[in-house]
Amino acid sequence: MEKGERAAVDQSALIFLGTGCSSGVPSGRCLIQPSDPPCLVCSMSLKLPPLNNPNYRCNTSLLIDYCQINNEHNYIVIDVGKSFREQVLRWFTFYKIPRVDSVLLTHEHADAVLGLDDLHCVKQFHHDVSPIPLYATQDCLDSVVLRFPHLSKKGLTKHEVTGEVAQVDWRIIENDCEKPFIASGLQFYPLPVMHGEDYVALGFLFGDKCKVAYISDVSRFPSSTEYFISKGRGRELDLLILDTNSIILPPPEIAAEQPPPEIAAEQPEADPSIQLP
Ligand SMILES: [Zn+2]
Ligand SMILES: [Zn+2]
C-alpha cells in the first residue's frame, strides 16, 4: 500500500504492527554476545533502516482499520506490548493512522500489555478525556491493574483524573467462542487457545465479507476452538493469521519418512499491510 491517508481509502485493511517474538527482533543478546558464527537474522537487522527491514520486528500486534458502510474508519489494536511506542512512531505515522478506538488483549504477558501506558498518545482527543475501550478477560484485567493501577479509575490520583494519563474503559470478555462482543462496530468471537499446557490465551475471529482468525502466541488448539473455525461449523476462514510460541515436531518415525521442507530464501515484503475486500 502507498503511504497515504487511511481515512481517504474506502476499504478495510490489516496492518501488522509487529511480528516479532517477546524480546523483539533483533535480540539484544545476539548483538552484544554474538555466537560464532553470528546469528544471521540479528546481523541483518542492522543493515537496513527499520522501516524497510523485514528482520527488524516489534512485539506481535495487529491494527484493524475497519471501514464501515458509511466509509467511517475505526481503528482497533490487538495487543499493546513492550514496543507499542515504537510501533506508533513507525507505522501510525507511515499509514497516517490518527488514533486508536478500541484495544483487545489476547493475554497479560509483557509482550502483549506493557505498552498500555502509552495509549494516551493515540486516543481520540476530547476535552472530557474519554477513555479507550479495552476488551480483556477478568483474569487479564486483574493482572494488568496490579501493574498499572492508574489504568483503573480506583487507582487514579486527583491529578491523574484530569491529566494526560492512559485511561481505559474496561470491558470484560469471556474465554468462550460462543460469547461474541462488538468493539468499535466490529463483531469479534473470542477463540480460547493454549499458551503452554497450563495457560489459556485468546485469539479472535472477525469480519463479515472476509472471515479472519488472528491467533498469536499459541502452543495448541483445543478441539472446541479448532471446530469453531472449521468448515464443518460453517466458518471456513478466508485468512488465518497464526503465530506459534513453540515448534511442534512430528514424532521421529514420521519425520524420518518426510523429506525436509524447502525454505524459500526470499525476504518478505517490508510493507506489513493487507487490504480486505
Ligand atoms: Zn539472533
Ligand atoms: Zn505470552
Brief summary of the model shown:
With 277 residues, the chain is an alpha/beta fold. Helices cover 19% and strands 24% of the residues.
Q: Tell me, what's the shape?
A: globular
* Ligands, ions, cofactors: zinc ion
DSSP helical segment count: 8
Tell me the name of the CATH class.
Alpha Beta
Radius of gyration: 20 Å
Structure description:
This protein has 277 residues and is of the alpha/beta class. The chain has a single domain, classed as Ribonuclease Z/Hydroxyacylglutathione hydrolase-like (Metallo-beta-lactamase, Chain A), CATH 3.60.15.10. It contains eight helices and twelve strands. The protein has helices at residues 28-32, 40-44, 84-95, 110-113, 138-147, 158-162, 223-228, 252-257; strands spanning 13-18, 61-67, 73-78, 102-104, 132-136, 168-172, 181-183, 186-194, 200-206, 212-218, 239-244, 273-275. It is globular. The chain starts with 12 loop residues before the first strand and ends with a strand. Residues 259-269 have low confidence and may be disordered. Residues 107, 109, 195, 217 line the site of one zinc ion (ZN). The site of one zinc ion (ZN) has 4 residues, from loops.
Write the layout of secondary structure elements.
Blueprint: E1 13-18, H1 28-32, H2 40-44, E2 61-67, E3 73-78, H3 84-95, E4 102-104, H4 110-113, E5 132-136, H5 138-147, H6 158-162, E6 168-172, E7 181-183, E8 186-194, E9 200-206, E10 212-218, H7 223-228, E11 239-244, H8 252-257, E12 273-275
Parallel strand pairs: 3-4, 4-5, 5-6, 10-11
Antiparallel strand pairs: 1-2, 1-12, 2-3, 7-8, 8-9, 9-10
The structure holds zinc ion (ZN) (2 copies).
One zinc ion (ZN) binds next to loops.
